[in-house]
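Q: Could you write out the predicted structure for this multi-component system? I'm mainly interested in how the pieces pack against one another.
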Amino acid sequence: MNNALLLDAIERYRNGEMSPEENTFFEELRKNNPDIDQLAAEHNFLLGELDKLGEIKAFRHSLNEVQNKLANEGILSENQGKGKARIVYLWNRYRRTIAVAASIAGIVSISTATIVSMYSETKNVAVITPLVDNKLNQFEHKLNQIENKLNVASVAASKPAPKPKLEANFRATGFLVDGSGYIITNAHVINNARNIIVENKKGDQFFTKAVYVNKITDLAILKISDTSFKKVTNLPYTFPKSSTELGEHIFTLGYPREEIVYGEGYLSAKSGYFGDTTSYQISISVNPGNSGGPVINKNGEVIGIISSKETNADGVVFAIKSKNIYNALKEVKGEESIKLPSVNSLKGLDRVQQIQKLEDFVYMVKGN
Amino acid sequence: MSIYDQEKALLAGLAAKETSAIETIYRENYAMIQAFIIKNNGYPDDARDVFQEAMIVLFEKAKLNSFVLSCQIKTYLYSVCRRLWLKRLQQQNRYFPSVELLKETIPVENEIEAHEKQTADFNLLEEALAKIGEPCKGILEAYYIQKKSMPDIAALFGYTNADNAKTQKYKCLLRLKKIFFAQYKNGDS
């Protein structure tokens, strides 16, 4: 039996075209001959697959026909929708992408904002150092105590003027604006102080009380309340009416130590920290204790009051413009009669003479 | 006629490849499936493919005498489409969403597995058909798929008589069988 005949037989057997005798014969043949049986099974399977393929193809064809027909009738909308439907479609399709993009954008902006704010906050908080010396050390305390004791012990007989005994925990500078005992300094200097005393170059100490404190302009006016204070006249400096120019040479006197210290520099900018127009930026060497010291130009005019310096930069110091003193005086006008000096006796003198004239009017401010 | 009887009649029609039955099923279910596919990251074309696959699965089922519909055609189609679409999304490695489970579904894993196996077999067969080349492919397709008669085929392919054509067909069938089973067994192992 050759292959073609066998295949023909299998096909006829499959299709039920065989006569009963032939059928029996064929089944016998398969039973007795495993090779033929195997062949027949394979062939049968292949034909079955071909059949099914044909069927499915035909079915797919009718599906497509139906679908196209219905699509043409407009019953099945295969377009992606128009107008609102399209927006809904696009939204559904891309909302996850949008959500991811939005979250990333959100995280980035929040973290950027956080970093920026953290950075600028540290700048705001840490960069400016008020120039009050709050760290008067134990050594100086001891010195003060011993000095006071010595004074009491040795001079008790002769001099009745007892110095106020006080353990200071801060030290800064101030200067007279009125010979009758008004001293100007920074508000941050006397911040929360219970007792404030001032001490002149000679070491005379006087009790004072604050008659004006403005934390915004950082100015304070102290009044010497001690009766031992003798009214002084002829304050040598004046306060300028006009503004000051960049590059002008300036100098200051202050108490960064227990002794008066001279420093000089120049005006670097007409505004202070972060564009603060109520102060100047000056370049000068100052230290804690210089706060409240006068900034004086070569004509002997007080152009400002030293208040703070930038921590991270060298020689960047801020001084409150003396214009603010006028404002402060206006505010206390009703209660105190303060008259600013009007005659300038420093103009034209050389620096050493200017300092000699000045130093009597610059006081150390301390207290606790 | 109860819904059950209606659906039974529809399935009978489907098994007999009646266009009217196919059309009815299309009308009643296509929109739902398309909405589902589009909502879950697909295009209308995807809906078309998936729906047709599901129809073939249903068709295969309907042909079986033993098949008893245990749920509505709607539920069945939805379950199959959902399963097929999830598989496709996974294959494409697309982000696949937590598919809405508002509608009732029934387990269709076995059917889909059988369907996939069948599809793979068909692919093999079609590949084999493509490999045997013309005119063998044409003759076999005409005879087995388009179900044309031998004399017609002889006329179509230029053979002098049906017997010649038949001999040619057997030769072709043998080649097809050789190629198909070589691949089929490879594929299985």
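A: Regarding packing and overall arrangement: The interface with chain B takes residues 3-4, 7-8, 42-43, 46-47, 49-54, 56-60, 62-67, 69-70, 75-80, 89, 92-93, 96 of chain A (CB under 8 Å).
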